[in-house]
Amino acid sequence: MNFDDTPEEAKFRAEVRAWISANAPHDLDEDLKKSGLAGLRLPGRDIMAESKAWQKKKADAGWAVPHWPKEYGGRGATPIERVVWQQEEGLYNQLAQPFAIGQGMCGPTVMAYASEDLKRKYLPKLASGEEIWCQLFSEPAGGSDVAALRTRAEKADGSDEWVINGQKIWTSGAQYSDYGILLTRTDPNVPKHAGLTMFIVDMKAPGVEVRPIHQMNGGRGFNEVFFENVRIHDSHRLGAVNDGWNVALTTLMNERMSIGSRLATGFPEIFGFVADFQLPDGPAIDNAAVRAKLADWAVKSSGLRYTAFRAISSLSKGERPGPENSIGKLVAGVMTQDIAKYAMELEAEAGVLTSQEDAPAAALFQNMVLNSPGMRIAGGTDEILRNIIAERVLGLPGDVRVDKNVPFNQAPGR
Amino acid sequence: MNFDFSDEQKQLRDSARRFLEKQSSVAVVRRVLEGDEGYDRELWQGLAEMGFTGAAIPEEFGGAGLGYLELCVIAEELGRAVAPVPFSSTVYLAAEFLLAAGNDAQKKNYLPKIAAGEVIGTFAYAETAGEVTAERIKATVSGGKLSGTKIPVADGSIADFAVVAAQSGSGLGLYLVDLTGPGVTRTVVDTIDPSRKHARIVFDGAPVEQLGSGDAEAVIAAVYDRAAVLTAFEQVGGSDRALEMARDYALERIAFGRQIGSFQAIKHILADMYVSATLARSNCYWGAYALSTGSAELPEAAASCRVSATKAFQHCSTNNIQVHGGMGFTWQFDCHLYYKRSNLLALNLGSLSVWENRLIARMRARNSARDAA
Amino acid sequence: MNFDDTPEEAAFRQEARAWIAANAPKHLKEELELSGFGGLYLKSEDPMQAGKAWQKKKAEAGWACLHWPKEYGGRGATPIERVIWGQEEGVYAKLSGLFTIGHGMCGPTVMAWGSEEAKRERLPTLASGEEIWCQLFSEPAAGSDLAGLRTRAEKATDGSGDWIINGQKIWTSGAQHSQWGLLLTRTDPNVPKHKGLTMFFLDMRSPGVEVRPIRQMNDQRSFNEVFFENVRIPDNQRLGPVGGGWNVSLTTLMNERLSIGSGMPTGFPDLLDFAMATGDVDNPAVRAKLADWAVKASGLKFTAFRALSALSKGETPGPENSIGKLVAGAMMQDIARYAMDLQGEAGVLTNAADAEARGKFQAMALRSPATRIEGGSDEILRNIIAERVLNLPADVRVDKDVAFNAIPTSGRK
Ligand SMILES: Cc1cc2nc3c(=O)[nH]c(=O)nc-3n(C[C@H](O)[C@H](O)[C@H](O)COP(=O)(O)OP(=O)(O)OC[C@H]3O[C@@H](n4cnc5c(N)ncnc54)[C@H](O)[C@@H]3O)c2cc1C
Ligand SMILES: Cc1cc2nc3c(=O)[nH]c(=O)nc-3n(C[C@H](O)[C@H](O)[C@H](O)COP(=O)(O)OP(=O)(O)OC[C@H]3O[C@@H](n4cnc5c(N)ncnc54)[C@H](O)[C@@H]3O)c2cc1C
Fold first, then answer.
1. Do A164 and A273 belong together in one domain?
2. What DSSP character marks residue A106?
3. C326 contact residues in B (CB cutoff 8 A)
4. Which of A287, A292, A400 is opposite residue C396, by nearest beta carbon?
5. Domain Acyl-CoA dehydrogenase/oxidase N-terminal spans what residues (chain B) (predicted)?
6. A260 pLDDT above the threshold of 50
7. pTM of whole model > 0.90?
8. pLDDT for A192-203, tens place per residue?
9. Could you name the CATH architecture of B217-372?
10. Whose CA is nearest to atom 1 of ligand 1?
11. Are both A223 and A146 inside the same structural domain?
C-alpha cells in the first residue's frame, strides 16, 4: 500500500502540472470555481466553444482521454496516471462535460465492438472533442428496465442496411451530438434480453428528429429522439445481431470504469462555504451542529474517494471493475441533495434566492438542489443500484420476475 | 378530549378543496410560475369571496370570525394546491402583526380590506443571509422615515403595504409602510419557487407609521409561532399530495412486467413517506389546538409542527420525484412544483436549524419548570 | 378539536389520581423511574410479586383492564378514560409488563371468540393478574410468515372430541410464567396455508407441554421455546371455527393495535432529561438531534390520540396504526446509542452502580433490536402500510393458492 506517488508517478504529475499551468484557460478560473455542482456557468461566453477549445488543446498535446491507445487519440496512460491527470486538471475538467458520455461510455463500446476502420474513423475525433456522441438507450417504456425497449431495427430487403423506427427519451446531449450508440429491438419473438442489437447512428441522418425536454431545473439538457425510417449500414452494427444486451453491458461496465473521474458529492463546496459563512454567534464551521453534519459527509466523501482508488488498484492489476462500484453514485447522489439543502438551511431566509447576484455562494447550492434529483435517477436509479449491490455483489436472489423467458411481445404489462 | 376536526370543519375542507381544484389548478400555478404576474388575481379574489382571507379576522374588523382551526383547514388545502397567492404574507403575517400590535385605527384601516381581498400585505424582515437576529437588522427609522434594504420579501413586489422590522433610537421596532408610496423601490428577485414571487425592497426615506410600542422581538416571535402552525398545515397538505402523486404513479408505471409499486424498494419509500406525513399531521393538530385556544403550549407546539412538517414535506416531495424516475425530473410533470414549494416553505419563516434550536430551548424551559415544581 | 379534558374527563382524572395517590406502591417509585426500557430495576422487591400485587389492588378497586366490561373484570371505561388512566398511572405501569400480552392480545381474542362460560371463567383472573397468559403463534419456520406454521392439531381418535397437539413454538414471551396460552395450530395441511389454521386456548400445565427458556442477547430470558407432545385440548377451548384460525389471529393482531392508547416508549423523555442533567442540551449538535426525536415522539403521541378519537366515534382502528412501533423501535435504538455517545468512554459501562443513568440507555441499546422484530418486523410493517393503507399491490407471491404441503421452504423436515 502506498498512498503517495512513486518516483515515476511524481514525474508524470510534474509534467502534467507544468503543461496545465502553461496551457489552461486561466481566464475562466473564477467562473469555474463558482460552477461546480451547479452546472457549468460561464456568463457571457459560449460554453460549447470554450469546452471544444480546451479539449482540442489537450488533444493536440496528447492529453485528451489519456488512457486511450495512441492510435485512437489517447496516450496509453495507466489507470493511475489517469487519476493523476484528473487531479491535476481539477477545475478545468468541468469543461469536458459535453464529452463525458461519448468518451466514458460510447467510445469504449466502439473500441470493443467496431471494426478497425470505424475505430480509426470515429475515436480520434471523439477524443479531441471535434465530434460529440450520445447514448440512445432509454425509452418511454424502458428506463430501469431498459431491455423492455421497443425501437425497431429491421433489415431492409436485399440490402446491407437496417431501417430504424421508434423513439428514445432522456438522451442527454442529443441536441448537439454528431453520433450516438443506439440500442434497438431486432427480434420481438424471443425473451426481451435476447432480441436486442446495438448500432452506431449518425444523428444528422435523415429521419432523426431531436426534441429537447424542458427539465424541472429549467435546463434542456436531455431530449426525445424520434426515428422514422432511419437507415444504418450493417457495418455500423456493434456486436452480433441480437447480442445487443451484452454490448450494452460493456457500455455500462465502462461507465463504472470512469469511477476515477471525480464523483461530485458537494462536500468540498459546503466545507468551503461554512468556513466563511457567519452564523449569529460566529463562523458556521465553529458551530457544533454544523460540525456533526460535516463530519458525516466528510467520511462519506473520503470513503468514496478511497473506494475509487482501491478499484483503480485492482484495475492496474488487470482486474475488471465489478458491480461494487455502484456505490459511488448511490452515496453521492443523496449526499449532494442533503448537502445542498443544509447549506440553504444555514442561509435561512436568503436560501430561497437563486440568482448568482443575490444568492449566497452565487446560488451554488440552490442549483445543486435543483439538479440533484436527476443524479439519483440518471444512469441507474438509487433503487436499481441497491438491487445491483444486493444481487451481484452480495449474491442475493433476483426479484421474482414475471417477464422471464417470455417472448417480448407476450410479456405482461405491455 | 377530541383530537379531530369537527364535521363542519371537514365540510369546510371539502369545499375549500373543491374550490381550489378548480381555481388553483396546475394550469393556474404554472401560469404564475412561468409568467411575470406576481400571483393569480382571480384566485385571490375568489379566496376572499369564500371568506378565507378573513377567516380568523374578528367580525368587528370585517372578518368572517370563523377561527384558527378553520384557518388551519384552509391552509392545508392551499398547500395541497400549491396555490400561487400571497395568502401567507397577508393572512399569517401582516394580519397577525396588526392583530398582535396594531392600534384600533390601524386594525380598522387594514383588516377589513384584507378580509375583502382588497389589499396585500407582507412582512419585511431579512436583510442578509443566515438566521435573522435583531443585531443583523440595519434598516433604520429616523424622523418617521425608513431607510434600508430588505431581501427576500415574500410578495414584496405585489404587496400594498408591509410590516417592517427596523432599528430606531430605542432599538428594534415594527413599522407599517405603504409600499406604493414614496421612497420605496422594489424589484422581483429569482427564487427557488417562482410560483411565489419575492422582492428586494430598497427604502429610501419612506414614511412609516409605528406599529405597537412594546418589545418588537417578542411580537415577532409570537407572530412567527402562529404563522409557523399555519405554514406547517400548508406543508402537510403538500406532503399528502406528493405522497398521493407518487402512489398513483407507482400503480400506473410498469417496469420488468410489473407495477413498480409492487417492488418493495418502492413500497418502503412510500410507507416511509406516509409515516413522516402522518407524524407531521398529528403534530399540526396539536399546533392547531394550541393556536386556536391561545394555549401556553403554543411556542412548543408551533416549533414541533414546524420542524416536523418541514421535514415531511421535503422528504415527500423529494421521494415523489424519485418514484417518478426520469419523468419526475421534467418540467412537464408536476413533481417539481411540490419540490420547489417544499424548499421555499422550509426557509420562509426561518430555517429548520433555527426552529430545532427553539424547540429544544422551549422544551427545556418546560422541563425545568416541572422539576422546580 | 379539544386537547383538554371535558368536565367529566377532568372528574375521572381526579378520581384516578386520588386513588393512585392513596394506593400506589410509592416506595418503588424511584426505582421504577430509573428503570428503563429493557430493564426493571427492582432491588427491594421481587418484580413478579410487586407486579402481581399492584395488579390485584387495581382489580379490587376496578382499575384493572378498565376498558373491559365489568362482568369480565373491567369497569367499562371509554377509550379516552383508558388514556387518562394511563397518564395518571405513569411509572407504576412499568409493573404491568408481565400482563401486557395477556391483557392486550389474548384477552380481547377470548372476548371476541370465546363462549360466555369461557369468558366468565378466564377473563377476570386474567384482568386481576392472578393468571398470566402467553401467545403461542411464532414457530421456527413461521415468524413474519406466520401462516407458514406447522404445529399440528388433530382430532383425537377416541371420540372425546378433544384435539391432540404436536409441534413446537418459539419466541413465546413469558411462557415460563404463564398459566394459559393462546395457540394457533394447523388442522389441515392440504389447503392453502391461511385456510388450514385453528385457534385454541390451553392450560400451560397440561401434560406434554414443555417450556425451555431462551437466553437472549441482552442476557435475559423472557422468551421461550415451547414443545407440545400429544397435548390434549378439549374442543370447548377452540376459538372460532375449525379452519378459521387465521381470522381469529387477525382479531388478536388488531387488538394489539388497539393498545395504541398506551403508547410505545421511544426513549425520548429519558434522553431529554439526561441531556438536561448533563448540560449537553446547550450544545447545538445535541439540540438538532433532540429536535428530530422530539417531533417524532410528539407526532407518535398525537397520532395515537387521533386514532383514539376515531375509536371513540366507533371507527375500527386500521392498519395505519402500524406506524407506532415502526417509528418507536428504530428511534429507541438511535436514542440509546446517542445517549451512550454523550457518555463518552463511560458509555460502555452497563452495571447500574457504575453506569450513567444507571445503565438505562445501555439496557435500551441491548433490548431495542427486538422491538424492531417482535410482533411484526419493520419490513413487515412497511409492507402493511404500503399495501393496506396506500393500496399498493402485494408482493409477487410464490406460495399463493398452493396447498400448504407443496410450498417451497427452507428446512422442512
Ligand atoms: C438527467 C438525466 C439524464 C439522462 N441521460 C440519459 C442518456 O443520455 N441516455 C439514456 O439512454 N438515458 C438517459 N437517462 C435515462 C435514465 O437512465 C432513466 O431515467 C433511468 O434509467 C430510470 O428510468 P425511468 O426514468 O424510465 O424510470 P422507471 O424505470 O420507470 O423508474 C421509476 C421508479 O421505479 C423504480 N424501479 C424501477 N424498477 C425497479 C425495480 N426492479 N426495483 C425497485 N425499483 C424499481 C425506480 O427506481 C424509480 O424510482 C437520463 C435520465 C436523467 C434523469
Ligand atoms: C423479544 C421478542 C418477543 C417475542 N414474543 C413472542 C410471543 O410472545 N409470541 C409469539 O408468537 N411470537 C413472539 N415473538 C416472535 C416474533 O413475532 C417474530 O420474531 C417475528 O414475527 C419475526 O419472525 P422471525 O423471527 O421468524 O423472523 P423472519 O420472519 O424469518 O424474518 C427475518 C427477516 O426477514 C424479513 N422478512 C420476512 N418476510 C419478509 C417479507 N415478506 N418482506 C420483507 N422482509 C421480510 C424480516 O423483516 C426480518 O428482517 C417475539 C420476538 C421477539 C424478538
1. no
2. I
3. 275
4. A400
5. 6-118
6. no
7. yes
8. 999 999 999 999
9. Up-down Bundle (1.20)
10. A374
11. yes
Q: How close A388 gets to chain B, by Cα (Å)?
A: 12
- Do residues A120 and A196 share a domain? no
Q: What pLDDT was estimated at residue C175?
A: 96
Domain match, A81 and A111 both: yes
Out of C81, C89, C139, C256, the active site residue is C256
Q: Where are the domains of chain B?
A: 7-115, 121-214, 217-372
The best mutation among A137, A336, A377, A404 to test binding of ligand 1, ranked by most ligand atoms within 8 Å of the C-beta, falls on A377
Contact A349 B321 (CB under 8 A): no
Cα B271 from Cα B261, distance rounded (Å): 11
Cell readout for B161 is 403595504
Which residue range(s) make up the domain with A348?
263-380
* N residues, chain A: 414
* Grid cell digits, residue C82: 383508558
Give the atom of ligand 2 at the shortest distance from the alpha carbon of C134: 8
Tell me the chain C residues in contact with residue B261 when contact means C-beta distances shorter than 8 Å: 386, 392-393
The whole-angstrom separation of Cα A369 and Cα A372 is 6
Domains B7-115 and B121-214 share a fold: no
Give the pairing type, strands A222-233 and A179-185. unpaired
Would you say the CB of residue C383 lies under 6 angstroms from ligand 2? yes
**Chain A residues inside the 8 Å CB shell of C288:** 289, 292
Query: Tell me: the pLDDT tens digits for C192-202?
Result: 999 999 999 99
Nearest Cα residue to B54 out of B123, B119, B6 = B119
C39 band by pLDDT with thresholds 50, 70 and 90: low
Residue C148 CA, ligand 2 centroid: distance in Å = 12
Q: Do A348 and B258 touch (CB under 8 A)?
A: no
Answer whether residue A104 is part of any domain: yes
**Same-domain check for residues A328 and A219:** no
Ligand 2 site, residue C171, Cβ cutoff 6 A: yes
Interchain CB contact of C284 with A (< 8 Å)? yes
Q: Check which CATH number belongs to the domain holding A43 and give it.
A: 1.10.540.10
- Report the domain count for chain A: 3
Ligand 1 neighbours by CB, cut-off 6 Å:
A 101, 134-138, 143-145, 170-172, 222, 374, 377-379, 381, 383-384, 387, 399; B 253, 255-256, 260, 263, 265-266, 322-323, 325-326, 329
- Quickly state the pLDDT bin for A257 (edges 50, 70, 90): low
- For residue B304, give the nearest of B285, B322, B326, B318 by alpha carbon: B285
For residues C12-26, one letter each, b for 16 or more C-beta atoms within 10 angstroms of the residue's C-beta and e for the rest, the string is: bbeebeebbeeebbe
Q: Which amino acid is at B201?
A: I
Q: Which residues are CB-contacts of C271 (< 8 A; sequence separation ≥ 6)? A: C290, C293, C335, C338, C339, C361
Mark whether A34 and A119 lie in a shared domain: yes
Asked if the structure places residue A200 within a domain, the reply is yes
What CATH number corresponds to the domain at position A359?
Answer: 1.20.140.10
Query: CATH: 3.30.830.10, 2.60.40.10, 2.40.110.10, 2.30.30.40. Which one for B121-214?
Result: 2.40.110.10
pLDDT class for C412, splitting at 50, 70, 90?
Answer: very low
Q: Which of C102, C61, C66 is nearest to C81 (CA)?
A: C66
**How is residue A152 written as a grid cell?**
425497431
Q: Which CATH architecture has domain B7-115?
A: Orthogonal Bundle (1.10)
Task: Examine the domain organization and report whether A34 and A111 are in the same domain.
Answer: yes
* Complex ipTM: 0.90
Tell me whether residue A391 is in a domain: no
Closest approach of C37 to chain A, Cα-based (Å): 27
C-alpha cell at A7: 518516483
Q: How deeply is B43 buried, as exposed, middle or buried, from its count of CB atoms within 10 A (0-12, 13-18, 19+)?
A: buried
pLDDT per position as a tens digit, C216-269: 888 888 899 999 999 999 999 999 999 999 999 998 887 776 664 457 889 999
Nearest CA-CA distance, residue A400 and chain C, Å: 7
Asked whether residue A99 is assigned to any structural domain, the reply reads yes
How long is chain B?
373
Beta carbon of C380 within 6 Å of any ligand 2 atom: yes
Which domains are assigned to chain C?
7-127 (1.10.540.10), 133-249 (2.40.110.10), 260-376 (1.20.140.10)
